[in-house]
Design goal:
By secondary structure, this protein is mostly helical. The chain has four helices and two strands.
């Protein structure tokens, strides 16, 4: 039964999507929390690029050498962008709130898809027991 979860690519995509959304949420809320900090440079994450790299199996800076050791980071430094380097010297609250709402929708969509997948398995088990 454990192999069903490990080999199914849909589970892997949903897991990576939720991990990357959680990391992006952390970055966005950090930008909002430091909006009035002088010299603060906001950071963002390219969701599509990070997901593509995670699915291709390119690990971040950390490597898991044993199953009970720390789990590798879902995001490498390559996907992070520094907003100051893009010519924005301050964090714009409207833009950050838009990013937060967009990221929330992506996360909730992944969770909903995961719940539906689990319900399909639950239904299959219930039907097999009849």
């Amino acid at each position: 039964m454990a192999d069903l979860f490990d080999t199914n690519s849909a589970w892997n995509v949903l897991e990576k999507s939720m991990d990357i959304s959680a990391e992006r949420h952390r970055l966005i809320t950090n930008n909002i929390a430091n909006i009035d900090t002088i010299g603060f440079q906001g950071k963002d994450l390219d969701f599509q690029k990070a997901l593509q790299e995670a699915l291709e199996g390119r690990p971040g800076d950390l490597v898991q050498t044993h199953p009970k050791h720390i789990i590798p980071a879902p995001v490498s430094g390559a996907q992070l962008s520094n907003k100051a380097a893009e010519g924005l010297d301050t964090v714009d609250i409207d833009q950050e709130m838009t990013h937060l709402a967009e990221n929330n929708i992506k996360y909730r969509t992944s969770v909903e898809m995961l719940l539906r997948k689990m319900n399909m398995i639950k239904y299959s088990i219930a039907e097999a027991g009849r």
